[in-house]
């Protein structure tokens, strides 16, 4: 890691550039001008180069691309950024995965929007809030276990009668249920590392981290 960004530690094909900026991102320059999304914690997926990106940023929480020179970017400040790449490097994607989006199916929608088989994809989990810092209520836990009873393993009860949610674990479960077995990254905590990361839960009004993946020409 350098001062501006964290390089994704995964076995992506040669030439694929992927990672997440830190709060020192003022000096960071994207390898290409990215298409931006208006993220709404939903499940809509857009394709880079589509008409949906021609005007104002569309309401969407994931973007996929398959052309040389394309870049996919999402913004986060506690939510889970997920970068996806096909083993041949032809298809890439970036997902903004907060708990609402994960529960609603944004991960599955993104995998379905990629033509490569899920078994031919790899995923990297960028910096997000850790389980020890992420307290949620009963409604969040219920949203997951209603669809997958085994997702209960991602929630630990705390002394306040609420739950500590493992966002990394929830994202990984959904990726693997969608057929993506090769999942890398995780292990960061945006909340507890203020010198490196923005955190909405810690600071309220705050900046954003950019998680990006670039397919070269």
* Tally of DSSP β-strands: 13
What portion of residues is helical? Answer: 10-25%
Estimate the mean pLDDT confidence: 95
Q: How many distinct domains?
A: 1
Profile the largest sheet.
Answer: 6 strands, mixed
Global structural class: alpha+beta
Oligomer: single chain
Q: What this model shows, in words?
A:
It is a single chain. By secondary structure, the protein is of the alpha+beta class. The chain has one domain (5-26, 33-132, 180-214): 4-Layer Sandwich (CNF1/YfiH-like putative cysteine hydrolases), CATH 3.60.140.10. It has five helices and 13 strands. The strands form three sheets. A six-stranded mixed beta sheet has the order 3-4-7-6-8-12. The two termini are 25 Å apart. The model has no long low-confidence stretch (mean pLDDT 95).
């Amino acid at each position: 890691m350098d001062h501006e960004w964290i390089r994704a530690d995964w076995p992506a094909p040669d030439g694929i550039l992927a990672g997440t900026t830190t709060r020192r991102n003022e000096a960071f320059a994207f390898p290409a001008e990215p298409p931006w999304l208006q993220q709404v914690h939903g499940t809509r997926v857009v394709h880079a180069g589509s008409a949906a990106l021609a005007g104002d940023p569309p309401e969407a929480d994931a973007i996929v691309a398959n052309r040389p020179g394309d870049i996919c970017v999402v913004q986060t400040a506690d939510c889970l950024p997920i970068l996806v790449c096909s083993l041949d490097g032809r298809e890439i994607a970036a997902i903004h995965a907060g708990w609402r989006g994960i529960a609603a199916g944004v991960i599955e929608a993104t995998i379905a929007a990629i033509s490569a088989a899920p078994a031919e994809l790899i995923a990297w989990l960028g910096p997000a809030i850790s389980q020890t810092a992420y307290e949620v209520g009963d409604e969040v836990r219920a949203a997951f276990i209603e669809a997958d009873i085994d997702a209960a393993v991602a929630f630990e009860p705390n002394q306040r009668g609420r739950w500590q949610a493992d966002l990394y674990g929830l994202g990984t479960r959904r990726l693997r249920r969608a057929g993506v077995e090769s999942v890398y990254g995780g292990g960061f905590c945006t909340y507890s590392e203020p010198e490196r990361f923005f955190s909405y839960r810690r600071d309220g009004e705050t900046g954003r981290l950019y998680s990006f993946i670039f397919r070269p020409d």
